[in-house]
Amino acid sequence: MTPESDVTPESEVTPESEATSESDVTTETITTDAGDARITWHHAGRPRLVLAVSHGAGGGIEARDLAALAAVLPAHGVTVALVEQPWRVAGKKVAPAPKTLDTGWRGVWPALTRPGLPVVSGGRSAGARVACRTAVELGAHAVLALSFPLHPPGKPEKSRAGELLGAGVPTLVVQGGNDPFGKPAEFPEGDHELVEVERADHGFAVPRRADLTQEEALHVITDAVVRWTAGLR
């Protein structure tokens, strides 16, 4: 993985110039069978879609890719709902089993559909797996998989490709070129689109010596999602 000292800190890369105002952001707590979850809504003025995205097993909604999407997508008619799983809201440091993550996601789904708009189910890392596993069951309009963990680092034989290939709805994968959980070339052929962020690791951090800056790497992500959501029917 890219050494921490060789990447741009997340605090330096949020596209603040495109961020929504505080009045466009609301937060609510949702009780689920796995505990209380939290949704932070970044509202579009004239929304046509809701993009619901959750975090991974090692971080929260402050992840650089989730923060960038929340800042950019509302200006393109997409309300972004950043979902914190119950374990994270409770202050625990270790994520529970996948079935418990799925339970938490199911529990917030009625709130995500409340605006009456199509909902794109998404997440990064473990959150992407949840979105894929539950998409058909919940009636997701599409799936956004950020840094999909195709396999544990160094263990390509333990593939999770079945979860991705079984999503059953239009799916966009955005993957770092140096992601130890699965590089773009390792992904199987299937009914999904894959966008590579060159030189990026699992957290979409890029080395300072890379050909693109950290801000440019984030724009690769947001531009891809803006384009893809615009084409959803």
UniProtKB/TrEMBL annotation:
Residues 7-21 have a biased composition (Acidic residues). InterPro entries: AB_hydrolase_fold, KANL3/Tex30_Abhydrolase, NSL3/Tex30. Residues 50-228 form the KANL3/Tex30 alpha/beta hydrolase-like domain. Residues 22-32 have a biased composition (Polar residues). Residues 1-34 are annotated as: Disordered. This is KANL3/Tex30 alpha/beta hydrolase-like domain-containing protein. It comes from Streptomyces erythrogriseus.
